[in-house]
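Appendix B. Chain record.
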Amino acid sequence: MITDYNRLSGLHKVSILFSVLGESLAISLVKGLSRTEVRKIRATIREMGGVSFSLKRRVMEEFYFGFLSEQFQDPDKEEGPIKPFEFFKSLNDEQIIALLVNEDVPVVAIALAQLEPEKRMMVLERMKPDKKGAVLIELGSLQEIPLEGVVEVAGKLREKASYLPKQVEFSRGGAKEIADLIGEMDSNEADRYMQTLQNEDSELYKEVKMFFLTFDDILSLFPDNIMRDLMNGIELDLIPMSLKGIEQEKVDSIIGNLPAKKQAMYEPIEGPVTKREVDEARKKVTEAAKQMEKDGAFNLADLLGGGEMVE
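Structure tokens predicted for this chain:
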């Protein structure tokens, strides 16, 4: 029985491969063999006799690693170190999360070891606590995984990544999308939906609230400087209509904060008006405030989330 790996020639190794896999499968994997070479392999198999299991395993591992490594070689490039995880560089954050978050712990650990620290944390934060802990433990024992196993994981993930949608092809929805949708409703309907959301899912309500700006929020949360810029930037006739029904003390505070010229031009609306007119004016004021935030005048999350403001 043959037991010494160092005594094996290339012909011996291919013959062992044929004996383990069977001739048909082996020929499909080892390309370019002539009929004469196949006959030599058959003859060598008969001559070799018995081969130890450990030797067969070593030959198979060598072939398997070499076969997978070829899949990562670019024929147009000079030979160099194999980089089986190079495809990670073409993936955005959403794609990396989608690729890894549902994989088995060893696969996730191997993949995380290839990523930059901030991207590792990004993936870990999307996992359940028990799986996160298991991945961290597995990261500490990667040296026990054979090299061919790492290459196999890379090949599996690279193939899976080819089926991932591009980020522009889908939206995750979430709190901001809900807030934008509710913001298109009239005030009564929006209030009902927000109340329902608060009753059904208080955590989601808090997240939505961070993006959902109302006219009441503007009155109660905007500091004087932002309020002045907002009111000074909208059409003059929107101010009295939007402030219709607001306590006079608050109205006086807002108007008194305007430039003197605009204060002089301001005229309150006397007599009753329809709720629809008031709602439309307040919606336009709110839209103007949202545009100010987009332009960088303030951070909505700081205001709605109770962030500290300094005058």
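Further analysis of this model is presented in Appendix C.
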